[in-house]
Amino acid sequence: MDKSGIFLYTTILMTSLLQDGALATRITKENTEFIIETDKKYPTKIFKAKEFLDEIRENLEEIAEKRFVELDVSKDESLISDDIIRIYRMLKKEKIKIKTLNVSSTGIDREALPVLTKLLRDPDFKCLDISGTQVAEIQMDTSNPKIIFVPKELMEAVDTKLKVKELFGEEVFNRHLNYYSVDKTFSSAWGDEKFQGINLRRVMYLGPDTDGQLNEEMQNDLLNSKTLSNLRKLSFRNQNINDDLIARLCSNESFPRIVNIDLSGNKDITVKSLKAILESQYLGSIRDFQQISCRYNMPASEISLDIKNTSITAEDVENFKVPRDNFCIRYFHPADDRQTFPTDTNAIKILQFR
Asked: For residues 326 and 346, is the Cβ–Cβ distance under 8 A?
């Protein structure tokens, strides 16, 4: 069966399993295999591997009759590599083989590679869907015919986009399109689980729609986001925001890579916002690689600010041209959080205005 057929077979069997936050596992008998399904269902964002395994154990007698399972734990970002490892080991102990595994749009990373590699080497294993995960881009040979994963270059090339859609189907195509998107509007990002969607961890720019504005609900959801950790540029242009919103943004540890903020067109933005941005221990505290300020000859994190049409005066700007010292900067690769340089604990933070 080709990839398209395998994927359709597994997705057709997916169902909505909402039980008010309770564990929702469904084990379905289908001809010669068992399909074990789960869906995003944990408000606490903690995948309950023990409970999931307990439910499988309760059905082991029936499952063992066939010796094969199709495992779908996709779209649950709280599921991590350790959960997959535990599930794999339990099934292996019972001599039950995994025939297909769908871990798309989950939180698995390089720690899962040994188990995934073992599965791919098994001649009885047919299909692994890792699209929308970190592990897909780290070390795996995505040319393996058993793997469902569309490389970025195929999604960007006009002549291959339609072929990808035709081969994998619209659902997989849209998932990859969303996964590779690094620019988002407020409304599109808010539509992805109210700024909590797992694919938002790739977003580097976030800004307003052509005519829309952030309402109060969207503002609160944005400030509570835990998945926009790779965001570099944030535009609040003409969004009717104030100093309180900036203060809350600066106190959120989920935005450590922001180095460019557009505050223009917001009359309620004052010098208080400059103070909050400069004093924040989070904004600009994680960089991909070390940067040295030519002027000060020190490791530095530079925050670029657009302050046109705000209540910030020229005198305010002069007062904030002096860098902040004793600023801590850590250096991590954006794709796999691998440390790229030792931490600088005595760096400086500089505000640049435009």
From this structure: yes
